[in-house]
User: Which sequence fits this backbone?
């Protein structure tokens, strides 16, 4: 059984750890409030671009664009993976990295090029000796837009130069029920979203000067928005996962402190009982 001093030292250590993780939980909660609003407010814009692309595809007889062209010979593909720069966020990074690894293995004999966003993913793909063409850190420093723009330019260049045949985006989608969902989206060749049967009637749009020129502007913007929204969703889910992990750590610390208190009181009671017995025994011997 530990001594009274050992219990007191352990109690102080756990109490300090609890204060640290509690502070980290509050910081994550504060950051989540900011990035959650950005992620949720970006969804209507993404839905509107989907609607416009649907409108173009249904009203134009023939649509041609280099980013819509499908390659018969599929040898290389690019995977854009969003992870975090820091840990202490539960299974956030493991979930997305494991899903990415399984997806890569499912392609079997295809070559993969990696664009890794986040230090955790960068380190993992480097250890696996994957072909990493671009890496990005500092997503949590409000760099979502600039990073997304750079990735968009890179993948369009690779695709138009026929260096890759497909592009996929993988990230943790933000869920307000605490549990995120790892999502894989195909970016290139672009598959124009189709309106579900019986869905709402599309708004009539007037396109000037022509469908092709509208597509030249709209398709890169659509790809850019998909990457940007993925970055926002990943950031929001990261802070949600970190907040939850720190809350669980705080609860565990509370439970450990309660157990230590119980042990401490039992030991103290045993010492008092021992002292009483010693006093009584000494009195009887006299």
Assistant:
């Amino acid at each position: 059984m530990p001594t009274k001093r050992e219990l007191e030292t352990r109690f102080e250590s756990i109490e300090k750890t609890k204060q640290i993780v509690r502070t980290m939980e509050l910081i994550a909660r504060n950051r989540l409030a900011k990035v959650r609003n950005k992620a949720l407010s970006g969804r209507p814009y993404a839905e509107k671009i989907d609607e416009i692309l649907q409108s173009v595809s249904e009203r134009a007889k023939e649509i041609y664009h280099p980013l819509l062209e499908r390659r018969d010979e599929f040898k290389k593909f690019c995977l854009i993976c969003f992870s975090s720069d820091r840990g202490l966020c539960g299974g956030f990074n493991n979930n997305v990295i494991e899903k990415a690894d399984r997806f890569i293995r499912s392609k079997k004999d295809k070559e993969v090029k990696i664009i890794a966003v986040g230090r955790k993913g960068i380190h993992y793909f480097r250890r696996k000796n994957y072909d990493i063409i671009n890496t990005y850190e500092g997503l949590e420093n409000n760099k979502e837009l600039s990073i997304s723009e750079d990735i968009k330019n890179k993948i369009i260049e690779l695709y138009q130069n026929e260096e890759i045949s497909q592009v996929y985006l993988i990230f943790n989608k933000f869920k307000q029920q605490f549990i995120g969902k790892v999502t894989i989206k195909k970016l290139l060749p672009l598959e124009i979203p189709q309106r579900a049967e019986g869905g709402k009637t599309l708004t009539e749009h007037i396109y000037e000067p022509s469908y092709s020129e509208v597509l030249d502007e709209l398709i890169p913007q659509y790809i850019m928005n998909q990457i940007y929204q993925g970055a926002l969703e990943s950031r929001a889910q990261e802070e949600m996962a970190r907040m939850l992990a720190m809350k669980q750590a705080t609860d565990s610390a509370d439970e450990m402190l309660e157990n230590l208190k119980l042990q401490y009181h039992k030991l103290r009671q045993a010492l008092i009982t021992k002292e009483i017995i010693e006093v009584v025994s000494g009195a009887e011997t006299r």
The beta strands are 76-82, 111-117, 131-136, 166-173, 181-188. The radius of gyration is 28 Å. DSSP finds five helices and five strands in the chain. The longest helix spans residues 211-285.
